Write a sequence for this structure.
């Protein structure tokens, strides 16, 4: 995970109350969002939540019905606007071209040419660990390599905003690790990276900030601990269960009505030893002790419910 | 197990509407299209008349008899090349120019150049009839030749009949012969269903009529096959043919015949010359036409195949990536169009160069016209393919639509059946297709060897269509940005 951006940094992308009707239904219902340079933002939501529509709006493929999208920093040159890199969910490369040829093509489409393009291709090949496969046809690459090439084709022009639609679908853990390392490098270099994904673990562990979207709205926005705090409360709990009602109070624990179950919420796991010390002094041995940490899945289910969306 | 495998195939077919369409509906559509095209002789030209253009260096009145005869034939459609014909004599130079223009226009299957000698039927000079053809329709020239020959045969018969009438007093022939007004050398096969020929001069009775009127006479004989001969002339292979030498039996007419040094309009006297002005400089124009027909058909298929890449790119997200880049929608559509155009030009060029090497179609001689037509045709097909790709929602849909459209266009437009064999109605319908305009253009280049300026109409239509369809494609291509595919 990269260091969280300083609050004073101006956003490189600002969405203000974006609304969009798409195919007869309201796909975006007033989205407001800010993306900062060097930030790795995880966009999370059930299928049909409006993530792809939002990415298409940001990338300019769709025009919002209302609201504004502002890109760039206040001191940017208006003649040289912020540049976007888009990594579609599917492998958006030419399978019958080689790795080198694909990079050349997409580099030229971004207006890069000559020695600068050659230099950038060499850098990107190194970055994506595809240096020894330059002459291989894209279709002959492994799934992980193809994914890396897919991303590599979008960063040749040094985009200040990189939009990735589920970039790690169908890749093995090693390739996923490599891809996130690549993205973190980009963020470290100052690019704002927005990722949509269904991989909870990736978002929890890799993203600086998480946005949860449902029914075309942003329902939560912040770091993981912020989200847990906002939706569940304390992120950790120690739960005691007794065979018969416990007669006395236990320090820091709250009993249920039947007094067979008690819960202690922890701000941090550092508090656990103190709780264990309390447990040593119990008169009655609990039948079961659960220590549970709440994560994004709990937040997500809390926010979006458990009913199937598709 | 086989049952399960069969069930898989059945379920896949049932669950795939596009495949169902291709398997069951497509054959019906095709059948209907082709049945519509080919029924009632619409396309085959079974209802088609041979278009005969005529020109004479004499006022029309002088050749009216022959023209009337030609017009009376239901298989011919005669019209003058010179709008002023009938009013003025035409010089040889002007005649040649008119014939060349008419031939290049493709409006006539055969052009009849009427001789001035026709004004004096009893001339002793030989008469030369010139039939000008472009060689496209060999049947047309054969039919017109036979009809013209039959005119002269009947004409000769009428002259001989007149002579017979003059002779009848000498030979004490019956008055019926004089009433019938004709006799002659021709042989006729008895056919009760066939009425007497209504010639332009209207007085020609068949020998059969005479036979019926004079059964038992000693100068009309019937052979075992029912073929009647007059004056015991040997049978001739064609009914209009006139035996060059006189038989012994005809010596009875010596007194009449000897007055003429030759029999007017006999085979020796009437010479029918068939001219193909292009033939001298053509080596294999028909192959060039086939190459053009096939080239346009394949061009349409390859163009739609290439345009389908746009749909593949849209489905894979590559198009999104390109749209987000610095390339504008106009540049993307324009670039694709240009790619299809160049590939199309290259494809046709390769095909024609191959035809040049193997069949010697004289490509280099017609290179400017070929280049102009190839560019125009490729441009039109590129726009057509881009529009189809923009309208269709998936590659499968594009395949189904393009196969139906291209095969129909090719059938109607002349890529499958030569346009010269089509009826005029069919040709008019064909003008709604690129194939027809392209083939007409290539025909002018390779067959008629017309100058570049004559391609103006074809090039205008093809490039105009290309522009129109291209603009329509640009208008509709906004959907790529909306992701509505």
């Amino acid at each position: 995970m990269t260091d969280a951006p300083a609050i004073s940094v101006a956003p490189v992308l600002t969405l203000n109350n974006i609304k969009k009707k798409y195919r007869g239904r309201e796909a975006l219902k007033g989205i407001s969002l800010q993306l900062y340079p060097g930030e790795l933002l995880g966009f999370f939501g059930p299928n049909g939540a409006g993530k792809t529509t939002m990415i298409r709006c940001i990338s300019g493929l769709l025009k919002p019905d209302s609201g504004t999208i502002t890109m760039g920093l206040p001191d940017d040159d208006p003649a040289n606007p912020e540049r976007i890199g888009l990594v579609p969910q599917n492998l958006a490369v030419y399978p019958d071209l080689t790795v080198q040829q694909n990079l050349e093509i997409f580099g030229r489409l971004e207006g890069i040419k000559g020695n600068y393009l050659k230099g950038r291709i060499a850098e990107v090949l190194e970055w994506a660990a595809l240096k020894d496969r330059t002459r291989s046809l894209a279709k002959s690459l492994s799934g992980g390599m193809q994914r890396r090439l897919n991303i590599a084709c979008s960063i040749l022009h040094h985009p200040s905003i990189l939009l990735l639609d589920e970039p790690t679908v169908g890749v093995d853990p090693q390739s996923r690790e490599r891809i996130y390392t690549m993205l973190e490098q980009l963020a470290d270099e100052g690019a704002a990276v927005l990722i949509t994904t269904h991989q909870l673990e990736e978002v929890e562990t890799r993203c600086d900030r998480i946005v949860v979207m449902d029914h075309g709205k942003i329902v939560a926005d912040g770091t993981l601990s912020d989200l847990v705090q906002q939706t569940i409360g304390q992120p950790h709990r120690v739960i005691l269960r007794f065979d018969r009602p416990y007669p006395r109070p236990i320090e820091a624990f709250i009993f249920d009505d039947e007094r067979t179950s008690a819960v202690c919420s922890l701000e941090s796991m550092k508090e656990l030893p103190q709780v264990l010390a309390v447990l040593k002094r119990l008169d009655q041995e609990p039948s079961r002790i659960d220590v549970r940490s709440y994560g994004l899945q709990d937040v997500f289910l809390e926010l979006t419910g458990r009913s199937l969306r598709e | 197990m086989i049952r399960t495998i069969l069930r898989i195939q059945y379920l896949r077919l049932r669950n795939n509407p596009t495949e169902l369409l291709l398997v069951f509906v497509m054959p019906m559509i095709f059948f209907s299209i082709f049945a519509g095209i080919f029924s009632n002789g619409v396309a085959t030209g079974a209802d088609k008349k041979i278009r005969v253009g005529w020109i004479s260096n004499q006022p029309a009145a002088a050749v009216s008899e022959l023209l009337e005869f030609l017009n009376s034939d239901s298989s011919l459609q005669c019209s003058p090349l010179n709008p002023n014909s009938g009013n003025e004599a035409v010089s040889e130079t002007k005649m040649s120019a008119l014939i060349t223009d008419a031939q290049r226009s493709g409006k006539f299957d055969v052009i009849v150049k009427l001789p001035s000698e026709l004004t004096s039927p009893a001339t002793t000079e030989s008469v030369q009839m010139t039939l000008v053809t472009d060689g496209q329709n060999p049947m047309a020239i054969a039919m017109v030749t036979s009809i013209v020959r039959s005119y002269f045969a009947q004409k000769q018969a009428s002259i001989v009949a007149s002579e017979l009438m003059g002779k009848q007093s000498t030979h004490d022939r019956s008055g019926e012969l004089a009433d019938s007004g004709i006799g002659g050398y021709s042989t006729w096969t008895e056919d009760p269903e066939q009425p007497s020929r209504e010639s332009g001069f209207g007085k020609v009775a068949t020998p059969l009529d005479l036979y019926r009127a004079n059964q038992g006479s000693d100068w009309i004989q019937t052979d075992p096959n029912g073929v009647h001969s007059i004056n015991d002339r040997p049978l001739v292979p064609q009914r209009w043919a006139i035996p060059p030498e006189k038989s012994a039996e005809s010596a009875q007419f010596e007194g009449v015949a000897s007055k003429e040094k030759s029999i007017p309009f006999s085979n020796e006297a009437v010479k029918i010359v068939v001219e193909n002005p292009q033939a001298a400089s053509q080596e294999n124009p028909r192959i060039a036409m086939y190459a053009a027909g096939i080239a346009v058909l394949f061009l349409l298929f390859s163009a739609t195949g290439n345009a389908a890449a746009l749909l593949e790119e849209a489905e894979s997200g590559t198009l999104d990536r390109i749209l987000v880049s610095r390339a504008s929608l106009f540049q993307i559509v324009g670039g694709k169009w240009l790619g299809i155009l160049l590939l199309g030009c290259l494809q046709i060029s390769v095909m024609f160069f191959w035809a040049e090497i193997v069949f010697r179609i004289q490509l280099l001689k017609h290179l400017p016209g070929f280049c102009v037509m190839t560019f125009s045709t490729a441009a039109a097909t590129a726009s057509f393919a881009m529009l189809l790709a923009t309208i269709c929602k998936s590659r499968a849909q594009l395949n189904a639509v393009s196969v139906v459209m291209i095969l129909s266009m090719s059938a109607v437009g002349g890529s499958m059946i030569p346009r010269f064999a089509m009826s005029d109605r069919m040709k008019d319908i064909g003008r709604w297709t690129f194939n027809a305009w392209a083939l007409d253009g290539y025909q002018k280049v390779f067959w008629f060897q017309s100058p570049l300026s004559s391609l103006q109409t074809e090039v205008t239509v093809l490039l105009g269509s290309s522009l129109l369809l291209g603009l329509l494609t640009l208008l509709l291509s906004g959907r790529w940005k909306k992701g509505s595919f």
About this structure: Chain B has two domains: 50-277, 282-482.
